[in-house]
Amino acid sequence: MSEPFTPIHEVGEFGLIERLQTIVGDLADPDLIMGIGDDAAVYRLPDEETVHVITTDALIEGVHFDRLMTPMEHLGYKAIAVNVSDVVAMNAEPRYATITVGIPARLSVEMMEAFYRGVRRACEKYRMVLVGGDTTAAHMLCISVTVVGEARMDEVLFRRGARPGDLLCVSGDLGGAYAGLKILLEQRQALKEKGPDYQPDLEPFRYVIQRQLLPEARLDVIRDWRARGVRPRALIDVSDGLASEVHHLCRHSDCGAIVYASTIPVALETREVADRFAEDVDTYALFGGEDYELLFALPPEQLELLDPTSFSVIGEFLPADQGVQVQTPEGAIIPLEPAGYQHFRADNGTENEPPST
Ligand SMILES: Nc1ncnc2c1ncn2[C@@H]1O[C@H](COP(=O)(O)OP(=O)(O)OP(=O)(O)O)[C@@H](O)[C@H]1O
Ligand SMILES: Cc1ncc(C[n+]2csc(CCOP(=O)(O)O)c2C)c(N)n1
Ligand SMILES: [Mg+2]
Which residues hold substrate (predicted)? Predict the structure, then answer.
């Protein structure tokens, strides 16, 4: 009998993680509060009042970025920011980072120095320290960052905890990073077709390109909550796309939810890109990913504590039997697919087009 061979696209990223988790998931530790399953793991310190959170996230050439379109300094900044975002998604402050780089031969010392200038800028911005890493040769540029953060035991927030009646809220605006990616891919194609003398005018797309290449972790948002005494009941960051993250919150909280598509905050610049490609901007906002905004469950009585310009109410949590729904701008209520960016696809395509609403 030959060994079973299940292609990874058959189970997908989350299915694979579940299969692997069953092999190691029963390794127990009395100080562990959250293991595999949230934006970061959480463990108790001996003082019993403080917890540490720890998270790791990779950026791989050809999967997370295109070297042609990505300045090295931006890449260094993004590698730190996306990890800080997972720490922030536990309502914790980032403290220390390590970084592993797998470097192909065609990169120079100067390119890696530029990358590290970006790393440094992000560490300064988020007030954290780079304390180590590892360096190896690789066939493609591979970056993996680990960040340790800190929170008070009674302040840490999880994907679980939302209750029916809580408001579904999001910081900032959505769909911009996907719009930026669309423009960058379009310009890469134009460069290929028209040759190296082609001079693209990217000025009108500055905002969306920045959303893609230089995302910020919303540390400012959780600090503002602390200053105002706001305490959401559940929290996640938007890395794979709004729809996918709403499903995570609902599954972990044993809730359903409804998202009102017309209330999802979208920047004018993002709308203009969707128009340029004759595509539906709600699709960008629901399924685009990489916006690194915070999605949270807010008890309605806390609404008045927040600055109304700093977030949007985009839906409501419901009892679990209602499932996860979206009300389209035309008013129809339909199931919201948990679609978002998919790492493993049967067709092995490099483009990851979201479904249409
Ligand atoms: N190969 C793996 N082995 C063990 N745990 C894993 C592995 N891959 C992911 N996980 C864990 O699974 C959970 C979900 O991971 P996922 O990457 O979806 O979350 P995330 O870090 O918030 O997302 P993103 O990578 O988009 O930032 C996390 O707790 C993560 O640590
Ligand atoms: C060249 C190129 N192709 C595709 C994308 C889009 N993309 C890659 S990973 C990801 C989700 C988050 O990943 P993870 O869950 O691993 O953190 C998204 C939306 C990109 N940015 N660049
Ligand atoms: Mg996350």
Answer: 64, 290, 341
Under 8 Å between Cβ of 151 and 60: no
Does the CB atom of residue 102 touch ligand 2 within 6 A? no
The answer to whether position 23 is within a domain reads no
**What is the CATH classification number for the domain harbouring 67?**
3.30.1330.10
For the chain, the distance separating the N- and C-terminal CA atoms, rounded to the nearest angstrom, is 45
- The domain tally of the chain equals 2
CA distance 229 to 86: 21
Residue 71 forms part of a structural domain:
yes
CB-ligand 2 contact for 64 (6 Å cutoff): yes
Would you say the CB of residue 291 lies under 6 angstroms from ligand 1? Answer: no
Please give the biggest Cα pair distance in the chain: 65
Q: Of 152, 177, 207, which closes a domain?
A: 152
CA of 62 to the centre of ligand 2 (A): 9
Give me the residues near ligand 3 (ion), CB cutoff below 5 Å. Answer: 39, 86, 237, 239
| 38 within ligand 1 shell (Cβ under 6 A) | yes
Indicate the pairing of strand 142-152 with strand 294-298. Answer: unpaired
pLDDT of 351 strictly over 70: no
Quick: pLDDT tens for 281-335. 999 999 999 999 999 999 999 999 999 999 999 999 999 999 999 999 999 999 9
Are 105 and 225 in the same domain?
no
Q: Which domain holds residue 181?
A: 167-335
> pLDDT tens digits for 119-172?
999 999 999 999 999 999 999 999 999 999 999 999 999 999 999 999 999 999
Give the pLDDT of residue 350. Answer: 46
Ligand 2 atom 20: residue of nearest CA: 64
Ligand 2 atom index nearest CA of 66: 1
- In the block, which residue shows the tokens 């993996």? 144
At residue 330, what are phi and psi to the nearest 5 degrees?
A: -80, -10
Amino acid making up residue 1: M
